[in-house]
Amino acid sequence: MNSLHESKPVKLALCAYDAAFSGAESFEEEHLGADLAFLMAAILKDGLCEWPEDRAIVRVLKLRLNRVNREAIFKHIKIEKLFSRLPKKPRI
């Protein structure tokens, strides 16, 4: 039986933490710490977070993770496209 630290979700959560830690000066900036907590819970509970593509946590993880870990972690992140937040033009 695997120990807790050897489980895939725990390894992914630790990988996300390491990437965020190495890519930020502070977890207080741009909600990075709170977003990381939500992401770690989503990974551990097989859930999902949703953020815009310009969110700090998304930017940091895209820059700091290798392809394999990025793909695994981003299965727990739904990217809200920036243009979807713009008001829609009224139909004439």
Question: SSE order in H/E notation?
Answer: HHEHHE
The fraction of residues in strands falls at: 5-15%
Helix content: 40-55%
Mean pLDDT: 88
In total, how many beta strands?
A: 2
Q: Detail the poorly predicted runs.
A: none
Rounded Rg: 15 Å
Trace the largest sheet across and list its strands. 1-2
Number of helices: 4
* Shape category: globular
Distance from first to last alpha carbon: 64 Å
Briefly note the structural class of the backbone: mainly alpha
Q: Major β-sheet, in short?
A: 2 strands, parallel
User: How many domains is the backbone divided into?
Assistant: 1
Give an overview of the whole structure:
The protein has 92 residues and is mostly helical. The model has no long low-confidence stretch (mean pLDDT 88). The protein has helices at 8-22, 32-44, 56-64, 67-73; strands at 49-52, 77-80. The protein has one domain (4-82). Helices cover 48% and strands 9% of the residues. The radius of gyration is 15 Å and the shape is globular. It is built from four helices and two strands, in the order ααβααβ. The longest helix is centred in the first third of the chain and has 15 residues, at 8-22.
